[in-house]
Structures are given as structure tokens and as C-alpha cells.
Q: What sequence folds into this?
């Protein structure tokens, strides 16, 4: 793989499982996990390692350039102090500024080229809101840090499937009401470009899911396919993008169907997330397309109920680190 700088892993919610999976991911460094550093409180991580009974030496670094030399023998940590000590499973909104600052610093380092990519540990939105965080989530905050001029798009990816929801965190009724041709086209364009640039696919194929059962059954079960989705597909095709559909989602995700496309544009959240979590629950990765930097994240939450117990599974974080490095290398080769 092309040589790239280390990856920047954010703190995430300090009362969640982010610290534990960071420690465990470093312990798998001999399995092809790329070099990374954590923007976090080194004392917190050292205490957590002791609590979990895992041997992970911590190396405080002053700059990302020091991470590669330290990585073989210790987990490199760029210090970001917490406002208050935190116990696993017991979040404190007072630490929201520290969590936010960890993200800001990681993004700045990626924009400067000192970090190859940003990998974000999970945050808890409710806790962040209580601490004064004014953005709907990670993705919107990341876009704002880059001027808010990009069309950020959420992809969920694993080796067997890539899905992109057109509408995301809204009620199903709201997703149907707000589905727009222009949004399908804009998201399709971003997705096609990312498949080419970030994933190295020369001629990306986009399958587009229907909204209604049986793709609307000729209008008998809804007209969104003919009124909104099909015109969007035609517009994408006119722009030179290999997009096709709308396809009934009940036959879109089996192995033979998956062999015919590189990603699926889905019309609502669960249409995208149910198949990928069924296929690879532990290894799915959240990728933000359309940003000037590379950003991935494990596809799970903070899991307060198991934080500090040693039960957290690091597989999704390991996959997110590997995918971030692969995307960064693909971008580097295209320069």
C-alpha cells in the first residue's frame, strides 16, 4: 500500500466503548491494522487498560509525525484532556467540549495532511446536546468544519455490500413525504464519484432501490417510482452514470443481485441498514462521502450498557481503520 501518514482516531464519548475498542484495535496491529493515533486523554486510556486487564503501553505524542515510530510498541495518544474524570457507562455532559475538540483537532490534522484520515469513535447525541453541541450529528459537524459547502453523504460499507440512504434520520412517514428527485440525483453523483476516486472502481454501477413494494406495481402501490425515482435515474444516466432501477428491495440484496452493482441508493434508513447489518453486523463501516478529507467510523453506538466490562467488539473499528487507509491510499494515487 502507498505510504500515507497515520490515521487520527477521535476520543468519542469517553463513557462509552470507544476507548476500549481503540485499545483492542491497537493490540491487533500485527493483523494489518494501519498506523493510527488517538486524540484522547492518555491517563484515561491507561486507567481503562488497567481496568480491563489488557497490556497496552500508552505513548503521549506531540505531533502525528511521532505516531509511526511509537506504534509498534505503544498506542500513540495526542493528549486531549477531559473536563472531568469519567466512569464507564456514566456520561457527563461537561466533557462535551473535550469530545468536540478531539474531532476538531483530528479534522484539522487531516486537512493539513499530517493525518491521512479521520476515524471517529461513537458519540452520544443526547449527551452532546446536553453539553451544548448544536449539530444533528458527527457528519453535519464535520461538514461545518470544512465550510459547509460540501454535499456530505453517508455510506455503510462492508466487503459484500455498500448502501447509501437518501433520507436518513427521520420518521418513515417524513422520509416518504420529503423524498425528492433532486436529492436522489445529488447523492447519486457524489456516490458515483466516491466509488471511482475513493474505492478505485473505474465504472461504478449504481442500483437504485424502489420505495414501495414491487417497485410500486405500476402505480397500484404508490407512484413515487414513476414520479420521482425513475426520473432521477434518467437524469443520472444522462450524466454518464451507470444507474439503474428502481428495483424492488426484497430481491435486491441476495448474493446474485449484489454481483450486479457496486452500491445501492436506498430511499430510507432501514432499507439500507437492515441488509448490511444482517450481512455483516460486526464489520460494517460508516463512510462519509463528499468531504475533502477521508472519514470513516465504526457502525455502532456508544454501548453504555457494556462499557468498561471488556465485552466490546473492536471488529467494526478495525474495519473502519483499514477502510480509511485504503481510501486515503486511493486518493493519494490519483493525485
A:
Amino acid at each position: 500500500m502507498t505510504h500515507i501518514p497515520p490515521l487520527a482516531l477521535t476520543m468519542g464519548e469517553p463513557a462509552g466503548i470507544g476507548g476500549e475498542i481503540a485499545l483492542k484495535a491497537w493490540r491487533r496491529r500485527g493483523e494489518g491494522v494501519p498506523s493510527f493515533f488517538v486524540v484522547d486523554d492518555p491517563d484515561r486510556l491507561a486507567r481503562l487498560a488497567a481496568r480491563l486487564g489488557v497490556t497496552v503501553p500508552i505513548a503521549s505524542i506531540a505531533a502525528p509525525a511521532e505516531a509511526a515510530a511509537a506504534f509498534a510498541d505503544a498506542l500513540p495518544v495526542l493528549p486531549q484532556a477531559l473536563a472531568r474524570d469519567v466512569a464507564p457507562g456514566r456520561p457527563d455532559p461537561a466533557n462535551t467540549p473535550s469530545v468536540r475538540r478531539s474531532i476538531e483537532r483530528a479534522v484539522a490534522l487531516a486537512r493539513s495532511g499530517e493525518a491521512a484520515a479521520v476515524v471517529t469513535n461513537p458519540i452520544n447525541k443526547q449527551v452532546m446536546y446536553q453539553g451544548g453541541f448544536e449539530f444533528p450529528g458527527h457528519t453535519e459537524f464535520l461538514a461545518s468544519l470544512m465550510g459547509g459547502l460540501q454535499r456530505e453523504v453517508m455510506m455503510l460499507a462492508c466487503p459484500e455490500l455498500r448502501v447509501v440512504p437518501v433520507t436518513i434520520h427521520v420518521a418513515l412517514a417524513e422520509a416518504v413525504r420529503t423524498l425528492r428527485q433532486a436529492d436522489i440525483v445529488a447523492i447519486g453523483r457524489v456516490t458515483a464519484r466516491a466509488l471511482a476516486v475513493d474505492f478505485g472502481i473505474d465504472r461504478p454501477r449504481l442500483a437504485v432501490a424502489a420505495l414501495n413494494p414491487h417497485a410500486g406495481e405500476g402505480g397500484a402501490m404508490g407512484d413515487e417510482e414513476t414520479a420521482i425515482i425513475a426520473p432521477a435515474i434518467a437524469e443520472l444516466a444522462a450524466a454518464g452514470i451507470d444507474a439503474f432501477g428502481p428495483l424492488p428491495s426484497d430481491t435486491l440484496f441476495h448474493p446474485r443481485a449484489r454481483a450486479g452493482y457496486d452500491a445501492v441508493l436506498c430511499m430510507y434508513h432501514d432499507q439500507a441498514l437492515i441488509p448490511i447489518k444482517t450481512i455483516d453486523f460486526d464489520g460494517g463501516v460508516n463512510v462519509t462521502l463528499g468531504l475533502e478529507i477521508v472519514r470513516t467510523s465504526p457502525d455502532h453506538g456508544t454501548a453504555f450498557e457494556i462499557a468498561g466490562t471488556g465485552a466490546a467488539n473492536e471488529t467494526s473499528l478495525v474495519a473502519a481503520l483499514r477502510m480509511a487507509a485504503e481510501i486515503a491510499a486511493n486518493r493519494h494515487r490519483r493525485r
Observations:
- The first helix runs from residue 18 to 27.
- The chain has twelve helices and twelve strands.
- The chain has two domains: 1-149+297-335, 160-279.
